[in-house]
UniProtKB/TrEMBL annotation:
Residue span, Protein kinase domain: 1-244
InterPro entries, sorted: Kinase-like_dom_sf, LRR_receptor-like_kinase, Prot_kinase_dom, Ser-Thr/Tyr_kinase_cat_dom, Ser/Thr_kinase_AS
Superkingdom classification of source: Eukaryota
Organism: Lactuca sativa (Garden lettuce)
Protein name as catalogued: non-specific serine/threonine protein kinase
Reactions it catalyzes: L-threonyl-[protein] + ATP = O-phospho-L-threonyl-[protein] + ADP + H(+); L-seryl-[protein] + ATP = O-phospho-L-seryl-[protein] + ADP + H(+)
Length: 248
């Protein structure tokens, strides 16, 4: 057995690989808290995420993408970022898993073509659908959609998104002053209960609302249709860290 990464980010999932004459497998460390998808969409009442947990998870995922895009040679593009591929360990630290569609940028020009990449409907950037060259900004788009799902509790493929309405537009219309109108009901309940329990001051309430708006704005900025207009993942990490610091 051997560890399959010469370098690693704490939020990109390391693997242990075993192979023999008749058996080949990639074996990953067990993640006891399941996937982000489970926590967002499970019917179990004890599987709910508060605001701090959501921001920390988003920061973990953004940090993993920053590592893959800016600190690996060659650059690695994940190509299938979605909640079911975000795994949570004992401490609720998020790890990016499932690199089955991942590609190395620049290693082979033919492999940078997106014609063979299907990804997942709702998370795949629009330019991949017309055969544009694969870039790290495609992952940024997927991250933006994932972020908006984390904050709203809505999948990009939910039935309400039709006739031109998308998760991106749904969130964009709430900015800057109506973000609470689109928040996940579970998150709203957490915030309301916490406000009562801690006798939240008006100043603190405004700070939380500001953090919510800033977070949703990041998701909207990452998921615009035009790749060159999307945020740089390094800036995403920086802004999410600032939001987390504001909430502490």
């Amino acid at each position: 057995m051997r560890i399959c990464c010469g370098q690693s980010s704490s939020s990109s999932k390391p693997s242990v690989d075993y192979h023999g004459n008749d058996f080949k497998a990639l074996v990953y460390e067990f993640m006891p808290n399941g996937s982000l998808h489970d926590w967002l969409h499970s019917s179990a009442s004890d599987s709910r995420l508060n605001l701090l947990q959501r921001i920390k998870i988003l920061l973990d995922v953004a940090s993993a993408l920053d590592y893959l895009h800016n600190h690996c040679l060659p650059t690695i593009v994940h190509c299938d970022l979605k909640p079911s591929n975000i795994l949570l360990d004992d401490d609720m630290v998020a790890h990016v898993g499932d690199f089955g569609l991942a590609r190395f940028l620049g290693a082979n020009s033919n492999k940078n073509n997106t014609s063979g990449i299907r990804g997942t409907i709702g998370y795949t950037p629009p330019e991949y659908g017309v055969g544009s060259e694969m870039t790290s900004s495609g992952d940024v788009y997927s991250f933006g959609i994932l972020l908006l799902e984390v904050m709203t509790g809505k999948r990009p493929t939910d039935n309400i998104f039709n006739e031109g309405l998308t998760l991106h537009k749904f969130a964009q219309m709430s900015l800057p002053d109506h973000v609470t109108d689109v928040l996940d009901d579970d998150l709203l309940n957490f915030l309301q209960k916490e406000a009562i329990a801690t006798q939240c001051t008006e100043e603190k309430a405004k700070k939380i609302e500001e953090c919510l708006a800033l977070t949703v704005k990041i998701g909207v900025s990452c998921s615009v249709d035009f790749p060159v207009q999307r945020m740089n993942i390094e800036n995403v990490v920086h802004e999410l860290q600032q939001i987390l610091d504001m909430l502490k």
